[in-house]
Amino acid sequence: MKLERSAGILLHITSLPSKYGIGDFGSDAFRFVDFLAETKQKLWQILPLTTINCPSPYSSESSCGGNPWLISPEKLTDMNVLSSEDLELLTNGTKFHGDYVSFKDVNEFKEKLLKKSFENFQNSKNHKEILDKFYADQSFWIDDFVLFMIIKSQHKGLPWNEWPSALRHHDPAALDELRRTNRNEYEYHLFVQYIFDQQWKQLKKYANEKNIQIIGDMAMYVDYNSVDVWANSKLFKLDSNTMRPTVVSGFPADENYDIQIWNQPVYQWNDANIRQDLFQWWIRRIEKSLSICSNIQAEHIRCALGKHTVRTVKNQIFKRKNSSGYELFSAVKSSLGEDISLVVEDIGSVTSEVFQLRDAMKFYGIRILQMGFYCYPDNIYSPHNYLPNSIAYTGTHDNATSLEWWTSVARREEKDLFKKYVHRPCSSEVDFEKHIPWYFIQMILQSASNGAIVLMQDLLSVNVRMNYPGKDSSMEENGPQNWSWRFKWSQLTSNIREELKELTEMYGRNLLYGKAIPPKDMIMQGDSSFFLK
């Protein structure tokens, strides 16, 4: 996706309104697309859509399998796999909170819903043909995914390295037996992924028809207890006996951050015997992600673009290992096309190598406005230093909202610099504070970054984070917690809509050709570079 001058909103699917306890691919998602189109937004950024068994969308059991919690009950009736009577019966007596996601309740409800839908689906004449075609289209990942889900269920959620030896080592004969003896459960998991695929494609098509591109999210590392590591164990640094990681991902302490230990297994970047298979796995993963979204943001890209750090399990010493960023992304472009582009997380403790590779691969960087007011004018995160090949954000899912930044995070000197930067008269501190979110929004929209994305909480001027990094979340928690925030339509007032549309158009983020075209009498003689081809 080539990024023209445009604007958009960062909002995960789960944060949409819905009467079924969690945002999904139903009517409210289509209504949100209508809102984006109405206010001239062209980008919708979301978090990972992959299957999870905990609140965090970044703790996935598969880099390809879709999250069944996002399947819309209403759309199941439209697809004729669930009757309105079935839906009424399943929701009878079930009450969900409108302000947050109660993950345990949602999980139990969606499981009952999908099992009833599968039961109805099996009674249709062509159900096997439908699943066979879907299987063929998704063959590179779907079989391992379904087997993983079956085995995990049979062993009460135990990590895969604690399964019986034959299953742990992906033995073909043992897996054939599993397929033969668990045919119904196998087809159920196929069905769930088929439904997810169909509902998502319908929503994406609707958005694209309204000239809205969806930006997805892809973590650089995958969870240890995932189908990706189980089915491709040779691609990761694992102990040959215990099958546990010998090293895990992380980042060392520096002047700004404490030691970070992410505890995800590290790839075999430097093993010449493995590299070809590893690159092919990455190519298929990125290709799958780009079939779901128009573009993807790669989290922690510094771990592949420059150097990543690992921890030895035995003595817990941090060390640096060279990685293979140039070779990897050159292989990706060679296979998927030179025009392929990613949004990369080039922030934090990065080196010049990260920026050099970002530019060499023509990837887009990101700029977080909150980082722009803590040092001198040459700060690359200050709005006047933004480059066109970047996306500017008021904040992300991991950041404070703009209101929280102002009231609880920003130091006195940052506040002083911010006030000088916006250069707006105000009658009082309270009066200035209530305008903070819109100062943020205006600054990123008027910046030189081709993309400008507003955090939904900032648009609504609310002070509720999506995630506090390092703070635990739980399936058992029935109340506000990390990843549970949802908005209500009543918060999205006509004034907010009109202001967003006006600023988007004012700063040229809804131009007909995606860029400014000067009048002919302002073009130097002989200079045809501005004319459209």
UniProtKB/TrEMBL annotation:
<dbReference type="InterPro" id="IPR003385">
    <property type="entry name" value="Glyco_hydro_77"/>
</dbReference>
<dbReference type="Pfam" id="PF02446">
    <property type="entry name" value="Glyco_hydro_77"/>
</dbReference>
<dbReference type="GO" id="GO:0005975">
    <property type="term" value="P:carbohydrate metabolic process"/>
</dbReference>
<dbReference type="InterPro" id="IPR017853">
    <property type="entry name" value="GH"/>
</dbReference>
<keyword id="KW-0808">Transferase</keyword>
<dbReference type="GO" id="GO:0004134">
    <property type="term" value="F:4-alpha-glucanotransferase activity"/>
</dbReference>
<keyword id="KW-0119">Carbohydrate metabolism</keyword>
<keyword id="KW-0328">Glycosyltransferase</keyword>
<comment type="similarity">
    <text>Belongs to the disproportionating enzyme family.</text>
</comment>
<protein>
    <recommendedName>
        <fullName>4-alpha-glucanotransferase</fullName>
        <ecNumber>2.4.1.25</ecNumber>
    </recommendedName>
</protein>
